[in-house]
Amino acid sequence: MALNATEIARRIWRAWLTKDYLRRTQRAAELFLHHYDARVLQGPFAGMNYLRRSHNSEFLPKLLGSYEAELSGVLEEIVRHG
């Protein structure tokens, strides 16, 4: 199947955005680690020391404390009632 020019351009654009996104998130993670080390800032795991890297998932949301946002109410309820 031959690709038309629009599809080729779309694929190049998608690849470029992905590469740029990865570069920016890597830089943001480096800055975060430099200033805050690998400590979770907010949420149910605030204050916990985290690994300095993450595999197969986003890193910064975990350190910012927003990764488990949907679970925070449930976790608080479990802790409150044992």
Structure, described:
There is one protein chain. The protein has 82 residues and is an all-alpha fold. It has helices spanning 5-36, 60-64, 72-81. Helices cover 57% and strands 0% of the residues. The longest helix is centred in the first third of the chain and has 32 residues, at 5-36. The chain starts with a helix and ends with a helix. The mean pLDDT is 83.
Mean pLDDT: 83
Main sheet? none
Low-pLDDT stretches: none
**Proportion of strand residues:** under 5%
Count of alpha and pi helical runs: 3
Residue share in helix: 55-70%
What gap, in angstroms, lies between the N and C termini? 60 Å
Notable traits:
single chain; mainly alpha; 3 helices
What is the topology?
Layout: H1 5-36, H2 60-64, H3 72-81
Summarize the structure.
The chain has 82 residues and is mostly helical. It has three helices and no strands.
